[in-house]
Amino acid sequence: MSGEVYGKVALIGLGLIASSMFWATRRAGLAGHVSGYARSEATRETARRIGLCHEVCESAAEAVADADLVVLAVPVGAMASVAAEIAPHLKPGATVTDVGSVKRRVIDDVAPHLPEGVHFVPGHPLAGTEHSGPESGFATLFENRWCLLVPVEGTDADATARLRVYWEGMGAKVDEMDADHHDLVLAVTSHTPHLIAYTMVGVADDLRRVTDSEVIKYSAAGFRDFTRIAASDPTMWRDVFLTNKDATLEILGRFTEELFALQRAIRTGDGEQLFDYFTRTRAIRRGII
Ligand code: NAD
């Protein structure tokens, strides 16, 4: 049990990440009161039914009133409009954070809307599942997972330190990172791999000589993992690629170059090249675990 870090927390967007934050916050007693708001009435109804948040509000303005911490947990493409909507209702001295998977774009979209005297500390928990919506969250989602805080120029050090304590209270390990570097790292570790999974599942589906049931029935771990990843929320991932365009295009360009080189090695029967490549990648894996 950790102590209370914030008097009132407001969660805007009540999907996988926000609902997990609520359960983790409640379990550790990290906030006196948690209010929530989601745009869709059906989501708000579901949230009320399952007891998500102490109070589910009918507007974002109502949810953020008097909040010490406001968490923007909506798809990256919706951050700007939500920031504009809540800005006039924020308490002076409040901290605004977000959990978006892309950081540079969120900072550019959100920061201009926030009034002076409100602290902005962008963040990104590196935790998730292929499920979405208010019923998909659980209290242990962030346990032992990294949460990256991305303070921008002028960010109040105390506000960042307090947010760190909050995430640690939810079980996460916290690091700080620059926004552009964050977006490049995530393009390598998450965004491009998701695109590859989407593509591989699409290719299997297009291949009429192999039926979908054969693909599922005979799939080894690799392909099963692809199908799990490719079941992730389409809105969230559309927004990730539209807003982390440069970094994902850079990594995708390098990826296709390497893939073409391996394709050529297979065609020309260059076993030495394949063996050397796989030996190098195996050494990388063995070096990190
Ligand atoms: P989700 O689809 O489960 O939930 C999103 C919620 O936002 C829904 O309740 C939806 O009704 C609400 N919403 C959408 N537009 C809104 C608006 N304009 N105003 C108010 N509410 C709105 O998504 P999630 O997985 O919880 O993702 C939320 C954020 O967290 C995204 O920015 C995503 O990039 C980031 N994130 C996701 C994961 C993951 O693996 N799912 C991991 C880390 C970070």
Query: Globular, elongated, flat, extended or rod-shaped: what is the shape?
Result: globular
Question: What are the bound molecules?
Answer: nicotinamide-adenine-dinucleotide
Give the CATH superfamily of the largest domain. Answer: NAD(P)-binding Rossmann-like Domain
Approximately how much beta-strand content do the residues carry?
A: 5-15%
CATH class of the largest domain: Alpha Beta
- Identify the strand order in the major beta sheet: 3-2-1-4-5-6
Q: Would you tell me which CATH topology of the largest domain applies?
A: Rossmann fold
User: What's the SSE pattern?
Assistant: EHEHEHEHEHEEEHEHHHHHH
How would you state the average pLDDT, rounded?
A: 95
Give the proportion of residues in helices: 40-55%
Structure report:
There is one protein chain. The protein is an alpha/beta fold. The protein has two domains: 172 residues, NAD(P)-binding Rossmann-like Domain (Rossmann fold, 3-Layer(aba) Sandwich); 108 residues, 6-phosphogluconate dehydrogenase C-terminal fold, CATH 1.10.3660. Helices cover 52% and strands 13% of the residues. Strands 3-2-1-4-5-6 form a six-stranded parallel β-sheet, with helices on both faces. A three-stranded mixed β-sheet has the order 7-8-9, covered by helices on one side. Helix 7 crosses helix 9 and helix 7 packs across helix 11. The protein starts with 5 loop residues before the first strand and ends with a helix. 38% of the residues are buried. The mean pLDDT is 95. Bound molecules: nicotinamide-adenine-dinucleotide. The site of nicotinamide-adenine-dinucleotide has 28 residues, from helix 1, helix 4 and strand 7.
